[in-house]
């Protein structure tokens, strides 16, 4: 879901927003609810900034007509967004003050003016804790020495973990905030725990899931190995080294796992899909199953293409599950389709590659949640 980080990236964005780009999108709020305080600040939380409700780079300013306005540099695909007064307790609502659907518009490469009316400010509703009992917080501040930081790590245990002596396959997933618990998610959860609990009840299929929270403003930096001239990035090598050389050894040492690559998966979406794909290619001896949902290959497709072509690692045992909505962006499906022949040329058997392109697929947790079970089954069953 998001492509902005804090310091370096924000300075780039600021310059971009202050420059007269021919294809900028001009966002305008033409009316706000009665009773809104005169000095209210209004922000645009969106799928580009990790749904940050008070991002100063997406604060709308009043123009001479009294309308709140914001200019956004041209991007690609569909942008989902919602207006807030700086937090999710003061997000915009529908005509009755209830939660409203995300707004959307599509970047088309041409100047656009998008007019919006805010109907109400949402009545405060507290998100419920939806995590299952077999989901735990492994650590609030797990060390990432490669990035000189720490991160919260979640872990899901199969229902029979405490009553058996079995060893289990492991799935490592990005953006842990959105995997298990609606209360911690930005715009809904994947329901990974509910899905796996159901599959266990039906078929005794099981796996440990380790979720790594993203770094918020650092998400884009950590989820790309290469720098994008507009949006930053570049810490992906350090992040993937953490996955392969710090986190995985710790999990295998601490819990009853099946440590072989054939029993270990990486799954992520959007920028998380990009970094999961990269990590799988860089460390095929560690991660043999890759679930790549709505990947942001556009972010650095040239560098990614070069890396795959020059990569000398053997990939003949790696399994790839690619998922995308056909209307998520103009290039997402075609980028995936361009990658597949290169993988085959590098020795990946055709039967080890699965693609699913949905006309109704969206760049959202609800879509990825719906498809997670099918991806798991394809990756882990013969």
From TrEMBL:
Any GO molecular function: starch binding
InterPro entries reported in the protein's UniProt record: AB_hydrolase_fold (IPR029058), CBM20 (IPR002044), Esterase-like (IPR000801), Ig-like_fold (IPR013783), Ig_E-set (IPR014756), Mycobacterial_A85_antigen (IPR050583)
Top-level taxonomic group: Bacteria
Residues covered by the CBM20 domain: 22-117
Protein name per its UniProtKB record: Alpha-dextran endo-1,6-alpha-glucosidase
Organism of origin: Kaistella jeonii
């Amino acid at each position: 879901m998001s492509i902005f980080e804090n310091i370096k990236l924000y300075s780039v964005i600021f310059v971009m927003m202050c420059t007269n780009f021919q294809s900028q999108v001009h966002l305008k709020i033409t009316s706000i609810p009665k009773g809104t305080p005169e000095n209210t600040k209004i922000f645009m939380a969106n799928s580009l900034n990790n749904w940050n409700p008070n991002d100063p780079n997406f604060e709308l300013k009043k123009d001479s007509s009294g309308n709140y306005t914001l200019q956004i540099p041209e991007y690609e695909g569909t942008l989902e967004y919602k207006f807030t007064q700086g937090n999710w307790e003061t997000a915009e609502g529908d005509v009755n003050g209830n939660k409203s659907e995300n707004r959307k518009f599509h970047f088309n490469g041409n100047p656009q003016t998008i007019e919006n009316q805010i109907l109400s400010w949402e009545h405060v509703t507290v998100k419920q804790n939806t995590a299952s009992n077999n989901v735990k917080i492994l650590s609030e501040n797990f060390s990432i020495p490669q990035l000189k930081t720490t991160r919260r790590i979640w872990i899901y245990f199969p229902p029979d973990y405490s009553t058996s002596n079995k060893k289990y396959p492991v799935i490592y997933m990005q953006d842990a905030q959105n995997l298990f618990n609606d209360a911690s998610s930005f715009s809904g959860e994947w329901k990974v725990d509910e899905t796996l609990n159901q599959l266990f009840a039906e078929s005794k299929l099981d796996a440990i899931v380790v979720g790594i929270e993203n770094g918020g403003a650092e998400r884009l930096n950590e989820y790309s190995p290469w720098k994008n001239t507009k949006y930053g990035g570049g810490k992906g090598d350090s992040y993937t080294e953490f996955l392969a050389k710090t986190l995985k050894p710790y999990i295998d040492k601490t819990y009853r796992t099946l440590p072989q690559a054939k029993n270990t998966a990486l799954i992520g979406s959007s920028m998380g899909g990009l970094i999961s794909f990269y990590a799988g290619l860089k460390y095929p001896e560690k991660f043999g199953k890759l679930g790549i949902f709505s990947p942001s290959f556009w972010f650095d497709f040239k560098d990614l293409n070069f890396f795959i072509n020059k990569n000398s690692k053997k990939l003949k045992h790696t399994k790839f599950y690619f998922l995308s909505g056909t209307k998520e962006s103009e290039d997402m499906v075609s980028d995936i389709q361009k990658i597949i022949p290169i993988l085959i040329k590098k020795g990946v058997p055709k039967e080890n590659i699965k693609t699913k392109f949905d006309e109704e697929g969206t760049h959202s947790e609800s879509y990825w949640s719906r498809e997670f079970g099918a991806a798991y089954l394809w990756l882990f069953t013969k």
